[in-house]
Amino acid sequence: MQANDSRLDKLARRRARSKLGFFTHATVYAVVNAGLVALSLAGGRHWAVYPMLGWGVGLLAHGLAVWLFAPGNNIMEGMVQRERARLAAKVEPW
Questions:
Q1: Distance CA 85, CA 94 (A)
Q2: Cα–Cα dist 64/56, whole Å
Q3: Interacting residues of 15 by C-beta distance below 8 A, sequence separation 6+
């Protein structure tokens, strides 16, 4: 039972760190891009949309990695179970 609790704790800590990293990334994105929008509007041009879109793609990818495909998530666990079933079907019984 101890080993299982240890693995569960390790997974929980890993997922919590991943989520905290995403929240940090999103906060930095919002603060920096607010500053870029202010500079853009002060200069009379609307160029800030380009870094927002580019960085936004990276933030989206980070969010998908954390919320959908991280170990322990339903989507990831379903994929792992299907792969295990496929591999088990290929392995010949001894």
A1: 17
A2: 12
A3: 70, 71, 72
pLDDT tens digits for 24-65?
999 999 999 999 999 999 999 999 999 999 999 999 999 999
Q: Is the pLDDT of residue 89 over 90?
A: no
Q: Answer for the pair 62, 22: CB distance below 8 angstroms, yes or no.
A: yes
Which residue is associated with the tokens 């998530």?
73
CB 72 within 8 A of CB 16: no
pTM for this predicted structure: 0.73
- Would you say 73 and 67 are in contact if contact means Cβ atoms under 8 Å apart? yes
Q: Are 51 and 33 in contact (CB under 8 A)?
A: yes
CB atoms within 10 A of CB 33: 18
Cβ-count burial of 57 within 10 angstroms (0-12 exposed, 13-18 middle, 19+ buried)? exposed
